[in-house]
# Entry
Amino acid sequence: MDENTIICRCEDVTLKEVRDLIKQGYVTYDEIKRITRIGMGPCQGKTCGQLVMREIANATGQKMQDVKFQTNRPPVVGVKLGLIAEEGRRDEE
Amino acid sequence: MKQAELVIIGGGPAGLCAAVSAASSGAKVLILERNNALGGQLVKQTHMFFGSEKQYASTRGIDIPNILLNELDKYKENVEIMTDCTIVGMFEDGVITVIHKEDKYFKVKPEAVVVATGAFEKSLVFPNNDLPGIYGAGAVQTLMNVHGVKPGDRVLMVGAGNIGLIVSYQLMQAGVKVVGILDAAPQIGGYLVHASKVRRMGVPILTSHTVKEAIGTDCIEKAIVCEVDNKFQPIPGTEQEFDVDVLCISVGLTPLNELLAMRGCEMKFVPQLSGSVPVRNENYETTVENVFAAGDITGVEEASAAMVEGYLAGLCAAAKLGHKSDDFEEKKADYIKQLDSLRAGPVGEKILSGIEQILVK
# Structure
């Protein structure tokens, strides 16, 4: 059943994949992200963030409060590199 | 690079109120809003608000943005509004990067910022939860109340909080059959007045129930629900089937906190506030100086509380920048009193126990 349960809609990561990785010892969001791309799609982990944290909490016996939250970095949304370069050029002028 | 005195991120209830209060104190305000219109979630709230008159009780949510915009118009020399602007990043040196539509990228460096980005809908884990026809309650409200589009014909609502109850009623008003409302909790979370209204119209509310599975090939055709025990574990043999073309998920919101987190504000996961929220002082300033936060991002509550928090954060941010109005203390005391009265009652008790965990002197 876990194969058909989607945790990350953006990157199509299933509950089974997440649970298997936790069993293998990947017990932070950022580790699971590096392996599966979870949270790296358009919503940037807004949907899956707490779901993954809860899975980690349940599997490791931690409270949600004690599970390390995902690292947030810019860019929050997709930006064309050309636009960033243009802005950089404006700074130089 | 664009210069600004006070940037307000998000033009929803908290952001607009922060703008009114800061601009009326004399601060130059720049509002950056992601959508093409201001108002945030208010633009789909066709129902009348509760609370007291100061938070626009008995006014429909959709009418509140205009009231606030008229108020803001009085200080228009102090206000700049930019819509279709999404924040791309907030950086340690205070720079905020912004994208306008998809083709204009720029930087702003304000002296202070009020982050009022609101909240994001929580989702639910069950097999086939990606079938078309499974919506968040926000999407259903947007379809119906903003675009006038019926999301489907037979809806099962998951979540008996105020949003779940109100959206169920609005669906019925639109001629959609609501086959039932579930909630995993043993009691109804929303106001009894809303619950009674849908019960009188014949909609069953099943507490201690959850979605076990969605079934369908190209889109949802059936939802299987079951009862849960007091540890929220499914009880075998209690399954029921509902023929539906829409499953509407309304299981709460979580603060939209990524900007504050990347800016380096100290964050804390507080279940009573529905997620990860900034540590802050009573002026709604975070642990990063001149970065303020207001509304659902500081803990999910009703729009009425978001508005008062916005007024308070805007007032304090302006004061910090040297625009302290003569009636500052009086206004601040009034906003704090309003928040206290909104937080009276059992739901407020939970919120207050959450705030205790993140409030610093």
Observations:
- Residues 6-120+253-358 of chain B form a domain with the FAD/NAD(P)-binding domain fold (CATH 3.50.50.60).
- The CA atoms of residues 165 and 194 of chain B lie 6 Å apart.
- Residues 303-320 of chain B form the longest helix (18 residues).
